[in-house]
Design brief:
The protein has about 270 residues and is α+β, with helices and mostly antiparallel strands.
Amino acid sequence: MQCHPHPGKCFGGLVVFAPDKLVPLVNALNTIWDRKDPKVAFILAIAAPPPAFQPALIVAPFVDTTDEAEARSTFAELFAVGPVADHAQIHAYTEQNKITDPIATHGDRKYMKGFAFRYLNPAIVDYTLQEYVTFLKIMGSDEAGSAAVIEGHPYGKMCDVPIDATAFANRGDYFNFTLPVRWKNPDKDEFVRDWTKTFTSGLKVIENRIAEERKEKVIYGGYANMDMPGDKAADAFKSNLPRLKEVKKKWDPNGRFNKWFPISVQA
């Protein structure tokens, strides 16, 4: 991996939409995604931001440009949907990661579950919205800091390397889904764990149905960035696990690094 300095500015920020804009919003994001512009990315979050703490669709567009007119033209389909709030602007590149800080504050109890999925489909986003609303009703207003986050990042360069060429399991033309869940009452720990697993399973059922309708096969990439206690290395690294075991056997045969996803080189 090579890091590259970026001392300049970029286009980004938060753009908020009412839930009734779900279908045109998802269609707009798919149109933008299908262009495969390496300078363009977005995050779609379902959250309940202040001051109303009511569920909303929040998009964080990104364009690697200092020309705001160009950036807004790139996301023209998005802005045409009609946001209720638009905070996107040209800002320092170093400010870009800070726009999601409100869902990563200190304190509280937290889980973060991540997985890859193939289709940014209205059915999947609507399922997420409905489950999120149910979650908030059960958990109460104190847990409004939880969110469901879909990441659309350009993978063209990364996919130049085949997924089976290295031990890294997250290469593919798909989206990453992250559930940053936070709450305060330890009595709700078990419910949160069960809800997160049930939600993930339900989403994959919908994705499999979409794939069947399209006569396609869903290929799940591993996404080990964020997972819950009890998740296994095989779930995180998928078909790349044997390759990862080879690397582990060569560089860490005694299991010095054994947290998170402990991998046995004997198995």
